[in-house]
Design a protein that fits this description.
Elements (H helix, E strand, L loop, with lengths): L21 E2 L9 E8 L7 H7 L3 E6 L4 E6 L4 H5 L5 E6 L2 E2 L35 H6 L4 H5 L7 E6 L19 E2 L13 H10 L12 E6 L7 E2 H13 L4 E4 L4 H5 L9 H15 L3 E5 L10 H12 L18 E6 L19 E4 L5 H9 L15 E4 L21 E4 L2 H18 L5 H10 L20 H6 L3
Parallel strand pairs: 7-9, 7-11, 8-9, 11-12, 12-13, 13-14
Antiparallel strand pairs: 1-2, 2-4, 2-5, 3-4, 6-10, 15-16
Length: 484
């Protein structure tokens, strides 16, 4: 499956340009406006705005707590000019993040099984628990709910596409009033894509489907519109805002391979990467546990040679220097790979892996038949061999979303639920585990939460920590049953 320059999101047709920070010009004669991230050395100087204007730019966003400013300019000399400012540590074109690409690279599909059976949901059913293999395993078939299902005072921030606050399985736990949008021109935190609602359901759904902590509160910090990517300053702003709001956990199912391609240089300290580092550290110092997805490229995050070959083959880019994947390799986060239903020896075919992995979460896949074919020849087309029942079922907006809203998920009558797979689906399971742990132990620091997650994980794969599962697959029942 060769990647394309326009990559699809995991749950809607979300194609994003490889070029970052660029905004369309208003006319053919107008100079192209670029967006930049400026990372100041310390506190923002009193005259920073005037200095930016003198260099030919204008201030777009200020994140004072971490010394980050977003600026825009049509002046091609702006970057070289502002970089000479002695108060600035790093300046660069703003990088664009994206939702994790669909592991199958499929545009439209009819959920089904290899034998041609269509996967459907009975809208009159009172529960879909029998289809939630992932939650059954995480909770020891629901036993963890009897021990601790979280509480409404414990908030998990979903930095994503927003949430459907009207969803019957989420409306009791989704905090619309406290939610925010960081997308310019979009003030609503409601989900226009689907991804964020699926993530939120994995954490705190309480209805036909269940989340890890069905009494936790989820809050949307929207950084993605219905289509398109998220500029780094929007994400930085959201992380800082969530930390200031006092959330206990942040989940970011956000991608990063193009981050790597744009993050090589003298020390790998691009301004956007500095912004990510500072925002995450700011959150941790505020007591927030940050959980992120590992990515869906089937790559070893530690193998520089393989990553260089990957970029050359798929994008024609020559990566010469150091490179990192964000947020998966940002210090301080809990990085989650994706496990599947049918194996405790190998992770999902699409999941990234390496020493950065802390734990795995059940993110699902297409079943063992598809897996065996893919691993023999990753370039082959096996879309008709997928079994959607091996994916993970969670909430989805009850209204049309995305570019293909009317055709998404077969006949469009999925009644607010969907089967998805990916590390985007794995990370919120671990964020939910972190939330329930914090509910039980509000005194725990992020380091203690991370340690508790690792220590209570089921040791899949090789004995002890390994590059596929990290410490193992996260399990909230194991923690609660042994919590003294």
């Amino acid at each position: 499956m060769k990647k394309k320059l326009s990559i699809l999101s995991i749950c809607s047709v979300l194609s994003i340009s490889l070029f970052v920070g660029a905004q369309p010009s208003k006319s053919k004669a107008a100079a192209e406006q670029e967006h930049y991230v400026l990372a100041y050395k310390g506190k923002l100087p009193a005259n920073f705005s005037q200095d930016i204007e003198k260099a030919g730019g204008k201030v777009e966003r200020v994140i004072e707590e971490v010394g980050i400013v977003e600026a825009a300019s049509t002046d091609q000399s702006f970057l070289s000019s502002i970089s000479q400012n002695k108060d600035i540590q790093s300046a660069g074109k703003e990088l664009e993040a994206y939702l994790e690409p669909d592991p199958d690279d499929a545009i439209q599909f009819t959920p089904g099984t290899p034998n041609g059976q269509k996967v459907t949901l009975d809208p009159n059913a009172t529960s879909y628990w029998d289809k939630q293999w992932d939650m059954q395993r995480l909770t020891h078939n629901g036993d963890s709910y009897k021990l601790d299902s979280g509480n409404h005072d414990t908030v998990v921030a979903v930095i994503d596409t927003g949430i459907d606050f009207s969803h019957p399985d989420l409306k009791a736990n989704a905090d619309e009033k406290g939610s925010k949008s960081f997308v310019p021109g979009l003030t609503s935190p409601w989900d226009g894509n689907g991804h964020g609602t699926h993530v939120a359901g994995s954490i705190a759904a309480n209805g036909k489907v269940k989340g890890v902590g069905p009494d936790l509160t989820v809050r949307a910090y929207r950084v993605f519109g219905p289509t398109g990517g998220a500029q780094q300053s929007w994400i930085t702003d959201a992380i800082v805002a969530a930390a200031n709001d006092g959330v206990e956990v942040i989940n970011m199912s956000i991608g990063g391979w193009r981050w790597m391609a744009n993050n090589y240089g003298e020390k790998g300290d691009s301004a956007s990467m500095v912004a990510y580092h500072r925002a995450v550290q700011y959150a941790i110092q505020k007591g927030v546990t940050v959980v992120v997805s590992a990515g869906n490229d089937s790559m070893d995050l530690n193998n520089l040679h393989d990553m260089q070959a990957y970029w050359k083959a798929n994008y024609g880019l020559d990566i010469k220097g150091p490179s990192r994947v964000a947020p998966a390799q940002v210090p301080g986060v809990i990085t989650v790979s994706s496990s599947n239903q049918w194996s405790d020896k190998g992770i999902a075919f699409y999941s990234n892996y390496g020493s950065a992995i802390d734990v795995a979460g059940p993110g699902g896949d297409n079943g063992p038949l598809y897996d065996s074919l893919y691993r023999k020849d990753p370039a082959g087309n096996y879309l008709n061999k997928r079994d959607f029942t091996y994916r993970t079922l969670s909430t989805y907006p009850t209204y049309p979303v995305g570019a293909n809203a009317t055709t998404q998920f077969s006949d469009g009558n999925w009644h607010g639920y969907s089967y998805l797979h990916g590390t985007s689906m794995a990370a919120p399971k671990v964020a939910g585990v972190a939330g329930v742990i914090k509910a039980a132990h509000p005194e725990y620091t992020p380091a203690q939460v991370a340690a508790a997650i690792r220590q209570s994980a089921i040791d899949f794969g090789k004995v002890g920590a390994d590059p596929l599962y990290g410490a193992g697959e996260a399990n909230i029942y194991n923690f609660l049953a042994n919590d003294k």
